Model the fold of this input.
Amino acid sequence: MSSTELSDTSVNDSVTVTLTVNGKRYTRTVEPRMLLSDFLRHELGLTGTHVGCEHGVCGACTVQMDGQPARSCLTFAVQAQPHAISTVEGLAPARGQLHPLQEAFRECHGLQCGYCTPGILMTMQAFLAAHPDPDEAQIRHALSGNLCRCTGYQHIVDAVALTAKNARAAKGGAA
Done:
């Protein structure tokens, strides 16, 4: 194959991807094999999505697709097109404010190095939306897909429980 044919092949292998991320639409031309984690980090500059194991085991790359946790290191950007993607950058209600879960992490010392934190936040936010009154065992089970080498998890569990308690109290439910 000549060098002209090689360069034509690489151009033809590009695809145009349009994704909705944190409520905003983005269109980029990328290679079909580009992972969603790479698209978010390198194409959009949303570096809160961390890449750890690159095998879907650690959970650091967790984002939400249509409100459900998804491993962005196992998903091609082209696969994400029909879905609404949420990243940790979209979690807070406004610039300078924290999401209640982020606030609870701060209050309960639920993070140390912070590498796993974005993935855990995205996992736990979706979990709490589906389970507003979890017990400790349910929180630990939901958290089991996210690895953290620093905290020992107790402070993370406490932060999730506090978030649930505060949400119930805000709705006038049992604290």
